Amino acid sequence: MTAQQPKPQPEVGPSRPAFAIWLGGTNEITRMFLAAGKVPGLINMAGGLPEPDTYPVKELAEIAERAVSKYPQDSLNYPPIEGLPDLRDRLAARFSNADLKLSRENVLVTSGGMQALDLIGKVLLNEGALIAAQSPTYLGAVDAWRPRRPSYRLFSPEKNDFDPVAALTGAQFAYTVPNFSNPTGRLVGLARRQELVDAAHQSGTWLVEDDPYGALYYDGTPLPRMITLSGAKQSGAIYDGPLVYMGTFSKEIAPGFRIGWVIASPEMIGALTIAKQGSDMCTSGLSQRVAVDALDAGLLERTLPVILDVYRHRRDALCAAMEEHLSQWFDWEKPVGGMFVWATAKNPAMDTDKLLSEALKAGVCVSPSSVFDPHGEDRRSIRINFTLNTPDRLAEGIRRLATAVKAIGLD
Amino acid sequence: MTAQQPKPQPEVGPSRPAFAIWLGGTNEITRMFLAAGKVPGLINMAGGLPEPDTYPVKELAEIAERAVSKYPQDSLNYPPIEGLPDLRDRLAARFSNADLKLSRENVLVTSGGMQALDLIGKVLLNEGALIAAQSPTYLGAVDAWRPRRPSYRLFSPEKNDFDPVAALTGAQFAYTVPNFSNPTGRLVGLARRQELVDAAHQSGTWLVEDDPYGALYYDGTPLPRMITLSGAKQSGAIYDGPLVYMGTFSKEIAPGFRIGWVIASPEMIGALTIAKQGSDMCTSGLSQRVAVDALDAGLLERTLPVILDVYRHRRDALCAAMEEHLSQWFDWEKPVGGMFVWATAKNPAMDTDKLLSEALKAGVCVSPSSVFDPHGEDRRSIRINFTLNTPDRLAEGIRRLATAVKAIGLD
After folding, report:
1. Cβ atoms A134, A177 nearer than 8 A
2. Does A124 lie at the interface with B, CB-CB under 8 angstroms?
3. Would the CB atoms of B19 and A124 count as touching at under 8 Å?
4. How many CB pairs under 8 A join A and B?
5. pTM higher than 0.90
6. What element of type H or E holds B176?
7. Span B72-297: which CATH code?
8. What's the gap in Å between the CA of B405 and the closest CA on chain A?
9. For residue A392, with 0-12 CB atoms within 10 Å meaning exposed, 13-18 middle and 19 or more buried, which class applies?
10. Which listed residue, of A28, A104, A316, B65, carries a Cα 20 to 30 Å from A343's Cα?
């Protein structure tokens, strides 16, 4: 061994091989936010984190014990790449309805919703390929696809002159968050959903329906999923259309399990499975078995009303505080669900990257619009989260944000 | 809603966008094996699966319960991208020694060992970049890097004329499995380890030390890790050299948790962390907390002797059966550790892809050498696993394999 030898002086060695090109363009703001979130006293309204008090800790602890003791073959072995058959069956059943026939072959279990985005990029993007993306666009999706250095065509379904066929045609896939878009919190209405689905069938383009917030409707009746509208256009056997639906337990039960899923045609599930094999082989068997048993125990049905009450109250508190302190500078719509309010400055000269640095000095953190623009240009808006903080903290955060806006010195 | 509308006939729509180019070259043999493993009566000696009877189920069930009930903030929230600080600290302590100073900043927790390979490809490979790889090469690594369509320079450390500097210079990284290589089960000796480390320091090339089997020494004293040899060349602060060490709990406790790790310079850990953020955001908090508590409870120290006894006995049983039934056609070395015996046909005309199809007919599955050759050319060897089956099943499997060899009809 070498322990007895005197250590030589450090070599001045040759330089290391360069990192891959895409790393040069990485946006580190999410990580800055995670770090900022640990600063004492800072009010973090930037992330999309759930309220930990809503987690059903006692029941989950019992379920975790049982997942190992009763199902060691599921929880301790390598699960199949596609996921535990029990979990795939539960998810197929959950999302099936009169218009949408699903079987196990339509379901891939993923390691959180983020992995579903990574895998879609892996199977559909050659270097520089075209993505059609709902604008503004979820930062995590842009991060997931950056290594393939794609090009983007952005579209806004809420605009009057929106042309879905023109938006989709020629892209490898179109990316949408129809329920309470991250970052805007907006709903894509029923008519637009139908138009997007029709355009996907007409153009052949894969249509990704990313739906982490689909259970978080605080008012009104949930709109039909686009994959259901697509299923209605198909007769016969199990779903085989162009919709690629993504969901996650992170916003419904707890994010720490890292359980997400993709529901799509068996052809797409097959391609994603090959990609997953080379990404992480399979998702934690323990987490998957806990998910099955949590579903079977009715945990979703018991927990969701609690979550909805807490978040509805916080949304209302946030919007009331914004009305009081921010309405002279910003416009926003009160969202019907989700986790965020999107506020756009009345003054087009506003630079919310600058506002963020003032906000951090004032002790509050929000997300600037630049990170949700694949081209990095939009500087006029902010995304404000309302799920993590109590109503009092939300109000204090908005007061601090108003201080930061004043420091910017715009009318 | 659409449920009341009559369903139209299926459209004959336009074709979907093509999948990414790399999917055309995918090797599906691992998945074929997984499927074959479920055929009743088939003896699966192809995979690298642990013996489930060695899992400490009762203790792990208690630990899982406690991970949720006592540490919900760790197990149920989003963990940091890099991993739970407690787990990073435990791993830094475990691999530190007199020659190697490690801190939390040297450690990234990954979702199994496979993710570590994926992330290395993500941060170091532009399309077509050069990898120097120990030959034959682990199939999973080839799978992980295929989406970047790399080129390979293969090297064999056991050859007399091996030139480590020539092997490494100009490659983005060099890939090695020094302890009981998958597939060959061979050890890279101490002198060669030192030469590889010296070559990495001299050339600047990153040197990946993939070590899933490092705890599975059945005979003799473990050789020093290459990252330790590299640490001995550096004085002063925490490790900052060219070694990238990868490990996993899959072979030590149980694979279902999907907990692996990378130990490397903070610069490399930083790049891998950015890549991980866009891959799965973070690894299951529940699995990570279980890993911390399993380490703290001394589970590794208690479980490992049991595993070693079982596997040593099975290795001996396999080699005895091979001596009896296969020695007229194949040569092999009895491995000192790991999970595999690598057998090479005496007759260079042997085609082990063909042997596999005969073996499946005879009711046994082994891995042909073609899948461990990034160029797909090596047809002369087979990899035989000895950890999953009992000695009786191993002997029966080898008898079936001998039947398949006879059916091939080579001398």
Report:
1. yes
2. yes
3. yes
4. 306
5. yes
6. strand B173-176
7. 3.40.640.10
8. 31
9. exposed
10. A28
Helix residue ranges, H only, B96-236: 112-124, 139-145, 164-168, 190-203, 226-231
Closest residue of chain B to A126, computed from CA coordinates:
B20
CB contact under 8 A, B279 and A115: yes
* pLDDT higher than threshold 90 for residue A13: no
Disruptive mutation site among A11, A76, A99 for chain B (greatest number of B CBs within 10 Å): A76
The span from the CA of A212 to the CA of A205, in Å, is 22
Which residue, chain included where needed, has tokens 């249509």? Answer: A207
Chain A segment 267-326 residues within 8 A of B by beta carbon are 267, 271, 273-275, 277-287, 290
Residue B13 has pLDDT above 70, yes or no: no
Name the residue ranges covered by the structural domains of chain B. 21-49+301-408, 72-297
**Cα distance between residue B213 and residue B209, in whole Å:** 11
Separation of alpha carbons B107 and B120, rounded Å: 14
Q: What is the mean pLDDT of residues A253-275?
A: 96
Average pLDDT, chain A: 93
Which residues, in sequence order, are CB contacts of B115 under 8 Å at separation 6+? A279, A280, B260, B276, B279, B280, B283
Asked if domains B21-49+301-408 and B72-297 share a fold, the reply is no
CB contact at 8 A, A124 and A212: no
Three state DSSP letters for A143-164: HHHHHHCCEEEEECCCCCCCCH
pLDDT at residue number A409: 85
| Upper half-sphere CA count for residue B395 (Cβ side, 13 Å) | 9
| Residue B282 structure tokens | 């973070």
The number of beta carbons lying within 10 Å of the beta carbon of residue A357 is 14
- Is B348 an interface residue toward A (CB < 8 Å)? no
DSSP assignment of B69-119 equals HH-HHHHTSPPPTT--HHHHHHHHHHH-BTTB---GGGEEEESHHHHHHHH
Structure tokens at A376: 């990095």
Q: Which residues of chain B neighbour A98 with C-beta distances below 8 Å?
A: 3
> pLDDT category, A357, cuts 50, 70, 90?
confident
| Rounded distance between C-alpha atoms, residue B106 and residue B379, angstroms | 40
- Compute the average pLDDT of residues A120-148: 96
How would CATH label the architecture of B21-49+301-408? Alpha-Beta Complex (3.90)
Q: Do B282 and A258 touch (CB under 8 A)?
A: yes
d(CA B339, CA B182): 8
Among the residue ranges A1-5, A303-307, B30-34, B179-183, the one predicted with the least confidence is A1-5
Q: Which residues are bridge partners to A12 per DSSP?
A: none
> DSSP code of B8?
P
User: Chain-wide mean pLDDT for chain B?
Assistant: 93
Amino acid sitting at position B11: E
Contact A258 B283 (CB under 8 A): yes
pLDDT digits (tens, 9 = 90+) for B379-397: 999 999 999 999 999 999 9
Amino acid letter, residue A265? S
Tell whether B27 is within 8 A of chain A (Cβ): no
Q: Phi and psi of A346, rounded to 5°?
A: -65, -35
Query: How many CB atoms within 10 Å of residue A238?
Result: 17
- Indicate the pLDDT class of residue A130, thresholds 50, 70 and 90: very high
**Alpha carbons A132 and A127: distance in angstroms, whole number:** 15
- The whole-angstrom separation of Cα B100 and Cα B375 is 36
B234 touches chain A (CB under 8 A): yes
Q: Is the CATH number of domain A21-48+301-408 3.90.1150.10?
A: yes
Q: How far is B393 from chain A (nearest CA, A)?
A: 20
Distances (CA, A) of B249 to A53, B116, B291, B395: 31, 13, 8, 29
Nearest to A2 among B69, B111, B229 (CB): B229
Q: Which CATH class is domain A71-297?
A: alpha beta
